[in-house]
Design a protein that fits this description.
The complex is a heterodimer of chains A (396) and B (158). Chain A has two domains: 139 residues, Aspartate Aminotransferase, domain 1 (Alpha-Beta Complex), CATH 3.90.1150.10; 240 residues, Type I PLP-dependent aspartate aminotransferase-like (Major domain) (Aspartate Aminotransferase, domain 2). In chain A, 44% of the residues lie in helices and 12% in strands. In chain A, the strands form three sheets. In chain A, strands 2-8-7-6-5-3-4 form a seven-stranded mixed beta sheet, with helices on both faces. In chain A, strand 5, helix 9 and strand 6 form a beta-alpha-beta unit. In chain A, helix 4 crosses helix 11. The longest helix of chain A has 25 residues. Chain A is globular and about 60 Å long. Chain B is an alpha+beta fold and 158 residues long. Chain B has two domains: 38 residues; 87 residues, Alpha-Beta Plaits (2-Layer Sandwich). Chain B is built from six helices and six strands. Chain B starts with a helix and ends in a 13-residue tail after the last strand. Classes of the chains: A alpha/beta (396), B alpha+beta (158). The interface between A and B is medium-sized, with 23 and 16 residues.
Chain lengths: 396, 158
C-alpha cells in the first residue's frame, strides 16, 4: 500500500488549514445559526452584468481566449484604474486578467520570490498570503498592526521590520482591509513610501475592497511618488460588483513582473473564464452607479452596527472600508476563540475569531455586515444579550 | 432627505435614533426632517404590509379596471375622489392605456366584491365599464416580499 506521507509535497503538508475553515466546520454542525461570518456581498450581481453573460452564452462560441485576457477588458480595467484611482497602466504590457484576486496574489509571489526570500505581511489580514508565500518558497514574516493605530501600518513598524529583515523582498498591504475594515489614506502612506523608496522592497497592494470605502475615496499606494514601479496592484470584481462566484480579478504592475506572471498564468490557467470576462466589460462600462448604490447600503449597515456595538460597550474603531467591523472583546475576559465558540453555543451567532487573521487579532472578532438590516438587527440583539450576560459574570 | 425616505420605505419602524446612526445625523435633525416631510405632504402616512393569507384568511382582493367618461370641467378628478371615499377601496390610480382608473378593492368574500362592483361602482355617473380581476396570490408589495425570502446560499463563514 502506498504511504502517502512519504510521497506528498512537504510544503503542501506543512500548510495549516485556514482558521476560518475550522470555525465554519463547527458552525455547520449546529441548527438555527445566524451568521455574521461571510466574506462576500449579499447583493446579487447587477442585472446588466448577468444579462451580458447570458448574451455571451447565446451568441458566442466559448473558446480559449488570449492568456492575458480580452484586450477590450484590459483596456476597461486600465480605464477604471485611471478613472477611480488615478493610476495609469498600459493594458498591453502591464495588466493580466486573472481567476479572482487570489490568483493575482499567487502570481505576484511566484513571479518575484526566490527560495528563502522574506515577505512582510501586514496583519491582521486575509488568510491566503502566508500559505501562498510558503508555496512559492518564500518566508512569510508577519507585520502586526495595532488597534491603537486603527490597524494601519505605521512607518515605525515598517522601519523596525526592515531593520530586523533588511533583505525582505516584498511587503504585502491589503487596504481596505479584511478583517479590520481599516483603510490607509495618502497621508498614512507618505512616510511608508518615503521609507520604501530608500530600499529595494517591492509592494503587493491587494485592493480588492477599493470601491467599498465610506466617507473617503480609496487611495492606492502606487499613486505615491516613485511607488508605481515598485508595486503590483491586485484587484477584482468580487466585492465591488458582487461577482464572487464569477472568479475574475486582475493584476497590474511593472511590465517585467507582468511578463513573468503571464508565463505562469499561461501554463497554469490558460485564461480566465471567458463568460465572466465578457460580463466584466459590462461591469466596468455601465455599473458605476450600481457600485455606489451597494456601497451606500453597506454604509448604512456599518453605521447601524457600529452604534449597536457602542451600546453593548464593546470598543470598536469606526472602520472606513470593506464590510467588516473588528470589535475588541477583551472586556468579556475571553480570548477570541473562546468568545466565538461560546457565542455560537449560547446564542447561535457565528462570527470569526480575529486569530484566524493573525496573532494581532487575538482580542478581536470579525463581524461582517454583508447582510440585510433585518438579519443584522436579530444578530445584534443576540450578541447584546450575550455581552450583557458575560459582562455581569465578570463583575461578580 | 432621499436617504431617509429610502430607509423608511424599507422599514418605516426604524427609530429616529437608528436613522440618525445610519445616515450620520443627529436624532433631532432626523426628527425635524421627517416632520417637515409630513408637513409638506411628502409622507402621507405609515402602513403595514401584511401577508393577507396569514393575517386574515377571509380577505379577498381584486384589481378593477374602470373606463370612465371624463367630465369637461374636471376630467377624472371628481369620480376618482368619489371612489376614494369608499372604505372597500384600497388604492385608486389614474392610468394611461386601455382603461382610465385602476382600483384595488378588498372584501371578505367574492360576493362582497361582486356586489360592490355591480351596485356601487357601475352605478356611478360616468362609469362606462368595469373589469374585475381577483387576486390569487401576493408575491411582493412595496418592495417587500410576501413570499419566503430565498435562502442565503453563502457559507456560514467564509
Amino acid at each position: 500500500m502506498i504511504s502517502y506521507d512519504q510521497i506528498l509535497s512537504k510544503r503542501a503538508m506543512e500548510i495549516k488549514p485556514s482558521g476560518i475553515r475550522r470555525f465554519f466546520d463547527l458552525a455547520e454542525t449546529m441548527e438555527g445559526v445566524i451568521s455574521l461570518g461571510v466574506g462576500e456581498p449579499d447583493f446579487r450581481t447587477p442585472w446588466t452584468i448577468r444579462s451580458a453573460a447570458i448574451n455571451t452564452l447565446e451568441r458566442q462560441v466559448i473558446i480559449y481566449g488570449g492568456n492575458a485576457g480580452l484586450l477590450q477588458l484590459r483596456h476597461e480595467i486600465a480605464g477604471f484604474m485611471e478613472r477611480r484611482h488615478q493610476l495609469s497602466y498600459d493594458p498591453d504590457h502591464e495588466v493580466i486578467v486573472t481567476v479572482g484576486g487570489s490568483e493575482a496574489v499567487d502570481l505576484t509571489f511566484r513571479s518575484l520570490l526566490n527560495p528563502g526570500d522574506e515577505v512582510l505581511i501586514t496583519e491582521p489580514c486575509f488568510v491566503c498570503y502566508a500559505p501562498l508565500v510558503s508555496m512559492a518558497d518564500g518566508v512569510p514574516v508577519p507585520l502586526p498592526t495595532r488597534h491603537e493605530d486603527e490597524f494601519r501600518l505605521t512607518a515605525d513598524t515598517l522601519r523596525a521590520a526592515l531593520h530586523a529583515h533588511p533583505n525582505a523582498k516584498l511587503l504585502v498591504l491589503s487596504y481596505p482591509n479584511n478583517p479590520t475594515g481599516a483603510i490607509m489614506s495618502k497621508e498614512d502612506y507618505l512616510p511608508l513610501a518615503e521609507l520604501i523608496r530608500t530600499t529595494n522592497l517591492m509592494v503587493l497592494s491587494d485592493e480588492i475592497y477599493s470601491e467599498l470605502t465610506y466617507g473617503t475615496k480609496h487611495c492606492s499606494i502606487a499613486t505615491l511618488e516613485g511607488m508605481q514601479e515598485r508595486t503590483v496592484v491586485v484587484n477584482g470584481f468580487s466585492k465591488a460588483f458582487a461577482m464572487t462566484g464569477w472568479r475574475l480579478g486582475w493584476m497590474a504592475g511593472p511590465a517585467p513582473i507582468i511578463q513573468q506572471a503571464l508565463k505562469i498564468h499561461q501554463y497554469g490557467i490558460m485564461c480566465a473564464p471567458m463568460i465572466s470576462q465578457r460580463a466584466a466589460i459590462e461591469a466596468l462600462t455601465n455599473c458605476d452607479n450600481e457600485v455606489e448604490r451597494m456601497a451606500e447600503e453597506y454604509d448604512h449597515r456599518r453605521r447601524y452596527m457600529l452604534r449597536r456595538f457602542h451600546e453593548m460597550g464593546l470598543t470598536c474603531f469606526p472602520p472606513a472600508g470593506a464590510f467588516y467591523l473588528f470589535p475588541c472583546i477583551a472586556s468579556t475576559g475571553m480570548d477570541a476563540e473562546t468568545f466565538c465558540e461560546t457565542l455560537l453555543k449560547e446564542e447561535k451567532v457565528a462570527v470569526v475569531p480575529g486569530t484566524a487573521f493573525g496573532d494581532s487579532g487575538k482580542e478581536h472578532v470579525r463581524i461582517s455586515y454583508a447582510y440585510s438590516l433585518k438579519h443584522l438587527t436579530e444578530a445584534a440583539d443576540r450578541m447584546e444579550r450575550f455581552i450583557k450576560r458575560h459582562n455581569t459574570n465578570s463583575r461578580e | 432627505m432621499k436617504e431617509i425616505l429610502q430607509l423608511l420605505k424599507q422599514n418605516a419602524r426604524l427609530s429616529n435614533a437608528e436613522l440618525a446612526a445610519m445616515t450620520n445625523r443627529t436624532e433631532d435633525e432626523v426628527a425635524q426632517m421627517i416632520e417637515q416631510m409630513e408637513h409638506d405632504g411628502i409622507i402621507r402616512g405609515y402602513s403595514v404590509i401584511l401577508d393577507d393569507e396569514l393575517a386574515d384568511q377571509d380577505t379577498v382582493s381584486a384589481y378593477i379596471e374602470l373606463k370612465v367618461t371624463p367630465k369637461p370641467d374636471c376630467g377624472f378628478e371628481e369620480i376618482a375622489r368619489i371612489i376614494t371615499a369608499y372604505p372597500e377601496v384600497d388604492s385608486v390610480t389614474l392610468m394611461s392605456g386601455g382603461y382610465d382608473l385602476g382600483l384595488t378593492v378588498k372584501g371578505s368574500n367574492l360576493r362582497d366584491i361582486a356586489a360592490f362592483v355591480a351596485q356601487r361602482l357601475s352605478a356611478l355617473d360616468g362609469v362606462l365599464s368595469t373589469a374585475t380581476h381577483f387576486v390569487l396570490k401576493h408575491y411582493k408589495e412595496k418592495g417587500i416580499l410576501i413570499i419566503e425570502e430565498p435562502d442565503d446560499e453563502r457559507s456560514v463563514v467564509s
